[in-house]
Specification:
Layout (H helix, E strand, L loop, with lengths): L1 E4 L6 E9 L6 H5 L4 H9 L2 E6 L2 E6 L1 H19 L6 H12 L6 H5 L4 E3 L2 E3 L4 H12 L2 E5 L6 H14 L5 E6 L15 H19 L5 H6 L3 E5 L11 E5 L7 H8 L7 E6 L13 H9 L5 E5 L9 H18 L5 H4 L4
Helix pairs in contact: 2-4, 3-4, 6-7, 10-11
């Protein structure tokens, strides 16, 4: 049914449509506790939403009604996979529909990578899904983006998945220990104790994905190896899933050294944030220059994540976006490495 809306927005056509939710779908799962999800839907669309039983009546501008109907269909599909719908799920599905992408939100938000101790790891944004797909399809993959976008976490989940599926024999996790270079000898403790603070974030993520009691055995057998980047020099890494984290803190020479460690049957994922370079003396970042060197080479994939892909507290995404806007206003472009060095 179509009519003409009068009043403050005169001559705007409106339509009314009834969506019948299948009886197999729990309406509380769809609408949320206390109709919380319904409130998000009403706020997101220029349409009136009325629910009676399993019927949802949408009334408003045709485009908005059609989009709201698609959202309901996507949420129903997600529920059918057995995955619970949260307010975050609703908001991310709405954002994907607004972006008018070809991928369905249900396909993105219901892709399970890894499950451990009742917790399932899956992409939460479209760019994260594309990043995960790139890891499946390519041998060398770059994930570039700000903190909280899941670039390292998802790469580690794919590494554990590959190990469990016997696609590789081992996982190698590495970071450049920037401050541990020539000053390493001045730090107290054994070599292991000196480098541990630089590798701790990798251990923390690993504990989310592998049973903690099995980690010492995996480390002792070198099935999982966690080491500073410098420790990889001179090695050829076969049948391994290799992750280099914080790659913005590599020099161009270190980046070349790392990439040429690639052996047969291996995959490399490089992650980093080019806005957070900690290299001393204005040294050039290997992550900054590598795309210009390797762009166009077959089986190498560059993937960028943005503030919209931040999956930490929602304020983190807003903070990242606000800094990006501030940088653009202040300099008309990216900040210098010197300005960034102490902003982490």
């Amino acid at each position: 049914m179509t009519e003409i809306r009068t009043g403050s927005r005169a001559d705007v056509p409106t339509t009314s449509h009834v969506v019948v939710v299948p009886n197999s779908i729990n309406m509380v799962s769809l609408l949320g506790p206390g109709d919380a999800h319904l409130g998000l839907i009403e706020k997101a669309f220029d349409a009136d939403v009325h629910v009676r039983g399993n019927q949802v009546t949408l009334r408003g501008e045709p485009a908005e009604v059609a989009l709201a109907e698609r959202l309901i269909d996507e949420l129903v599909t997600i529920i059918r996979t057995g995955q619970g719908v949260t307010g975050e799920t609703v908001e991310r599905a709405i954002a994907m529909l607004r972006a008018e992408t070809t991928e369905r939100p249900a396909d993105v938000l219901s892709l399970n990578i890894l499950s451990n101790r009742g917790r399932t790891i899956r992409p939460k944004t479209l760019n994260q899904k594309r990043y995960v797909d790139a890891i499946d399809k390519h041998t060398i993959i770059f994930g570039i983006g700000p903190a909280g976008t899941g670039k390292t976490y998802l790469a580690m989940a794919k590494a554990v998945q590959a190990l469990q599926g016997k696609q590789v024999n081992r996982i190698i996790l590495s970071r450049p220990a920037v401050e541990a270079g020539e000053r390493l000898g001045y730090l107290p403790g054994t070599l292991s104790e000196k480098i541990d603070p630089y590798l701790r974030p990798l251990y923390d993520a690993l504990h989310d994905m592998v049973d903690p009691e099995s980690i010492p055995k995996l480390l002792a057998s070198n099935t999982i190896e966690v080491a500073p980047l410098a420790f990889l020099r001179g090695r050829s890494l076969n049948d391994a899933f290799i992750i280099l984290d914080e790659a913005q803190n590599t020099s161009p020479e270190q980046m070349k050294m790392f990439l040429t460690r690639l052996g047969f049957g291996s995959k490399i994922v490089v992650t980093g944030d080019v806005t957070q370079v900690d290299l001393p003396g204005g040294m050039q970042s290997g992550l900054r220059v590598v795309e210009g060197i390797l762009d166009g080479i077959e089986d190498v994939s560059f993937n960028r994540l943005t503030a919209h892909d931040v999956v930490r507290h929602r304020l983190v995404g807003k903070i990242v976006a606000a800094y990006d806007e501030f940088d653009a206003r202040r300099e008309g472009g990216p900040r210098s490495t010197t300005d960034r060095r102490h902003e982490r």
